[in-house]
Specification:
heterodimer; A: 283 residues; MetI-like fold; 75% helix; 2% strand; B: 310 residues; alpha+beta; Rossmann fold; OB fold (Dihydrolipoamide Acetyltransferase, E2P); five-stranded antiparallel sheet
Chain lengths: 283, 310
């Protein structure tokens, strides 16, 4: 009888092994193989690719950019997404549903389509965004958005915003509305209530949203590929290029595995931090 | 002029009159309960005093001052919520000290007063715990301490004991009454539990459909209910020949007693300290409560004669 649970989870385990573990192990192995312009891939065990990825300043720049972009996107989604979720949560019945749909609706549209939309808005010096900004008198000369980190950050922030809103929304749902009233009755003003009472309670939500957004931003492909293009590569577009343009699969594999390891390390330590900090308070 | 005055207070939600022309005066140091079934407007009344709900019309005055002109955050009232509404991310001491912090009380004095108040509610040793690590009764005490530490002009209690189990509730009732006597804070309790209201209050206001049915000391309301609603809400009653009779006032008499009502015992329930009888009589079903003195009692199906001081 004790074997039953294992047997029942066997189909899922087989599927997981076949589509996740096996390709992953093969990618890791691939990253230790050799490659040459004329000889192709040689199944030997060498550290050449890893030495290159870890030692070459070109790759440092790529990874630095990837995580810098991901960091700013995470920051922006937190700054805009958390108040957005809070306002949404305080809305009355029909509007709440409508605006939730407005915020989550983009998830129903392909990332490629949404990014192409941003590309149209950015589109060179006469793009709509630049026209609007100069029309409002905010800028005197057009800002470059296409093929810049700014453009990638703006577009990806929009793409990933729903994940932050959802995470914060979930933690707001658990909030007892009377707790805010209790603080008010004790003499706290609206700003103090937000800072001292609401924010600390939704902080775990913001942090878990941040982990999701950071991981998705650092591994995003479509948006950096369209907005950043060849001129502004990040880790994922770099790996893609190594695989499909240079055809240096082992080097691409090393880039991909390094991105995966870095992400796992960051997400894992962020989770540990959250758990340690909040274990006592929110069981 | 009373310390706290509610004058012709009204509040409507849509077409529903939640509070319908309520007038009440509460003296300083008094413990008054707003008692009634759910939806009678008692909680709305409390929230209007606290400032979370704005009345449609009417006035609330505290020590002669118009309370409605003061923001909720400046009213200086102590409130204990039904859900306790403790700050989950703060320790017990931080919870209790929050109100003092908002008042700008210096840290040293804050620590002293928080310590004193926690001693008052019997939680002196748990200052460093988080709310999640406390039992329901302990959380309740923290909420009480948090409301009392700011030395409020009025203490508002919104069904504070309804989340506790029966035994704990009884203990807390006694303790709450003692604490209120000790600190002497004017207190308004909202409850649907008539036993709780009667046990704690100097006066009770029985409410129904947004109106006050009766305002008076518990004993008076129980003995001389102004309306049939009050009589029913404050305990079991019998309507015999147009008169309201409390079940515990009816006794079994010998046959032939003048004015006694003959009947047959339909059901008999033993409840420890008393017996609960349902007796079929010519004027309908009569409920009788008799003290359990250990003696022989009429059995089901037996014929009895009911007498009470007419």
């Amino acid at each position: 009888m004790r074997a039953a649970p294992y047997l029942m989870s066997l189909p899922a385990l087989v599927l997981f092994g076949a589509v996740v573990v096996v390709p992953l192990v093969m990618t890791v192995l691939l990253s230790f193989h050799d490659w040459g312009q004329y000889k192709g891939i040689e199944p030997v065990f060498i550290l050449k690719n890893w030495e290159e990825v870890l030692g070459d300043s070109y790759f440092h720049e790529m990874f630095g950019r990837t995580f810098r972009i991901a960091f700013f996107i995470t920051l922006l989604t937190a700054i805009f997404g958390a108040p957005e979720a809070y306002i949404l949560n305080r809305m009355k019945s029909p509007w709440r549903g409508i605006f939730l749909l407005v915020i989550l609706g983009p998830l129903l549209i392909s990332v490629v389509a949404r990014t192409l939309g941003w590309a149209l808005l950015f589109g060179g010096n006469s793009g709509l965004v630049n026209k609007a900004l100069s029309g409002l008198g905010l800028i005197s000369a057009p800002l470059p958005f296409m093929f810049t980190e700014t453009g990638v950050i703006v577009a990806l922030t929009h793409v990933l915003m729903p994940y932050m809103v959802l995470a914060v929304w979930a933690s707001l749902q658990r909030l007892d509305p009377q707790v805010e009233n209790a603080a008010v009755a004790l003499g706290a003003g609206p700003f103090t209530v937000l800072r001292r009472i609401v924010l600390p309670q939704v902080m775990p939500g913001i942090l878990s949203g941040a982990v999701i957004v950071f991981a998705l931003a650092a591994s995003a492909f479509a948006t950096p590929a369209i907005i950043g293009g060849r001129r502004l590569k990040v880790a994922s577009t770099l790996a893609y290029d190594e695989f499909l343009n240079t055809l240096n699969w082992p080097l691409g594999a090393a880039v991909a595995v390094l991105l995966l390891l870095a992400l796992v390390a960051i997400v894992w330590s962020a989770n540990r931090l959250v758990e340690r900090r909040y274990a006592q308070v929110f069981s | 002029m009373a310390f706290l005055e509610l004058e012709n207070l009204r509040k409507t939600f849509g077409t529903h009159n939640a509070v319908d022309g309520l007038t009440l005066g509460v003296e300083k140091g008094e413990f008054v309960s707003l008692l009634g079934p759910s939806g009678c407007g008692k909680t709305t009344t409390l929230q209007m005093i606290a400032g979370f709900v704005e009345p449609a019309s009417g006035a609330i005055r505290l020590a002669g001052k118009d309370l409605l002109a003061i923001k909720p955050a400046r009213r200086g009232l102590g409130i204990v919520f039904q859900s306790y509404a403790l700050f989950p991310h703060m320790t017990v001491a931080e919870n209790v000290g929050f109100g003092l912090e908002m008042q700008g009380v210096a840290a040293a004095e804050r620590t002293t007063r928080v310590g004193e108040t926690l001693e008052l509610v019997g939680l002196g040793t748990l200052a460093g715990r988080f709310p999640r690590q406390l039992s329901g009764g302990q959380q309740q005490r923290v909420a009480l301490a948090r409301a009392l530490v700011i030395r409020p002009q009025i203490l508002l209690l919104d069904e504070p004991l309804s989340n506790l189990d029966a035994k704990l509730r009884e203990g807390m009732q006694i303790e709450l009454r003692q604490i209120q006597r000790t600190v002497g804070t004017t207190t308004i309790l909202v409850t649907h539990d008539q036993a709780e209201a009667m046990a704690l209050s100097d006066r009770i206001m029985v409410m129904n459909q947004g109106k006050a049915e009766q305002i008076g000391p518990p004993h008076e309301a129980y003995e001389k209910p102004a309306t049939a609603f009050v009589a029913n809400f404050l305990g079991k009653t019998n309507l015999v020949n147009g008169a309201t009779v409390r079940p515990e006032r009816i006794s079994f008499a010998a046959s032939g007693t003048p004015g006694a009502l003959a009947g047959t015992v339909r059901t008999r329930i033993f409840q420890g300290n008393h017996w609960l009888y349902q007796v079929d009589t010519a004027s309908g079903l009569v409920t009788v409560i008799r003290q359990n003195t250990g003696g022989e009692m009429p059995a089901e199906g037996g014929s009895v004669h009911l007498a009470w001081g007419q």
